[in-house]
């Protein structure tokens, strides 16, 4: 209790370096969780959330958390699990497509994109997140780089927010397979089929997706120099590749803020899937 008060009332930079979140945002985040599903249970909500952020943001193992907060391993594990589930539960209020009809400034004031992408609402792509699985299943989770990963499908808008997250697929699964599974399973609640076009590279969709021309490369290079695109197909592929990079940048920011996504502890598979969603929820909360 005393340590948390000193951190929240101290220099904002100190709280940010420790928890990767500003003091005011941390206090508001705890208040939202308190009004939701998270209860005190002999340990104040702020301390529970701080233990969770230590694990995902600083990649401390739970035994180090036990020593720091002077709690038993069972207590730390139980409360971190409660925070993770509470954070994932409020995800339906934080991870959703925007209903704003205004054209994003990222497109509206950029002549490279406007008016060609004026109906675009975001980008969608898959990324590989570290995972831990039993030895008998390791083959199906080994990706192209021979690392054990899970394939996570995400969509984002142009305001640094994730609008859809679908985790749990093995690392060997390609993006097309994950995407088709997401749109064909009603319980996943894939929202983009009626929302508007997305910029995507790697899957084939219907009228809701814009994909590049597959018979051309995105940019043309001669003797190490980038040449100007010739023809409308090369120009579209070039601008398509440029605008879809927004989700690659968001993936980089997400993994930099939460190192646990690069080296997942030996949690149960279900807990690992929820952990990915929880990190995206915290990311959206901070951005907003």
UniProtKB/TrEMBL annotation:
Name listed for the protein in its UniProt record: DDE_4 domain-containing protein
Cofactor annotation: a divalent metal cation
Transmembrane segments: none
Intracellular or extracellular location(s): Nucleus
Family recorded in the similarity comment: Belongs to the HARBI1 family.
Residue span, DDE Tnp4 domain: 124-284
Annotated Gene Ontology cellular component terms: nucleus
């Amino acid at each position: 209790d005393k340590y948390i008060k000193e951190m929240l009332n101290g220099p904002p930079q100190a709280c940010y370096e420790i928890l990767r979140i500003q003091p005011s945002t941390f206090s508001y985040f705890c208040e939202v969780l308190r009004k939701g599903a998270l209860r005190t249970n002999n340990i104040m909500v702020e301390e529970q959330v701080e233990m969770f952020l230590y694990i995902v943001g600083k990649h401390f193992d739970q035994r180090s958390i036990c020593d720091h907060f002077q709690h038993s391993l069972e207590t730390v594990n139980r409360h971190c699990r409660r925070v993770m589930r509470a954070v994932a539960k409020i995800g339906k209020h934080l991870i959703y497509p925007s209903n704003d009809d205004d054209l994003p400034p990222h497109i509206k004031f950029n002549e490279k994109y406007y008016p060609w992408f004026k109906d675009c609402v975001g980008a969608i792509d898959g990324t590989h997140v570290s995972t831990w699985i039993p030895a008998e299943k390791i083959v199906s989770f080994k990706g192209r780089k021979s690392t054990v990963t899970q394939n996570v499908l995400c969509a984002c808008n142009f305001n640094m927010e994730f609008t859809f997250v679908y985790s749990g697929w093995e690392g060997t699964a390609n993006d097309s397979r994950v995407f088709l599974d997401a749109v064909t399973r009603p319980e996943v609640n894939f929202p983009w089929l009626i929302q508007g076009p997305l910029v995507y590279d790697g899957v084939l969709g219907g009228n809701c997706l814009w994909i590049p021309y597959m018979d051309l490369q995105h940019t043309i290079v001669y003797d190490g120099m980038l040449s100007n695109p010739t023809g409308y197909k090369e120009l579209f592929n070039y601008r398509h590749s440029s605008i879809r990079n927004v989700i690659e940048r968001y993936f980089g920011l997400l993994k930099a803020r939460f190192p646990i996504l690069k080296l997942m502890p030996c949690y149960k598979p279900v807990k690992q899937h929820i952990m990915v969603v929880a990190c995206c929820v915290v990311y959206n909360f901070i951005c907003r």
